Amino acid sequence: MPKYKVAHIHEQGQDMIIFPLDARFGYMSDSDQHEELTALGFRANAAGLRGTAVAVWDAGGGRMGFMGPQQWHPFLRSINLRFVMANLNKEVYW
Question: Which superkingdom is the protein from (predicted)?
């Protein structure tokens, strides 16, 4: 049974469901990343979490990779994995 700890936050008037994923996510093709993130968002919404799913991962060299709506990129650039891990507050599993 897959289980993910997520940071479900409300920022800039938006509900975000931030999934910290394994660094391997960063090496997937764009289409595979999009498919995975869409599935995670569907599962989170089905579990009762409101908002849009965002993927974050360790991109090496102290950097955080992310995938989410374009308008959220400035916010996502302003945070790091330490912030995400400190804000884990929900679990999504199926």
Answer: Bacteria
Site of tokens 């093709």: 29
Average of pLDDT values for 32-54?
98
Position 79 confidence tier, pLDDT thresholds 50, 70, 90: very high
Dist. CA 41–CA 64, nearest whole Å:
20
Distance CA 87, CA 94 (A): 22
Backbone region of residue 48 per phi and psi (left: phi > 0; alpha: psi in -120 to 50; beta: other values):
left
pTM of the model: 0.96
For the chain, counts of helices (H) and of strands (E): 3, 5
Instruction: State residue 12's pLDDT score.
Output: 85
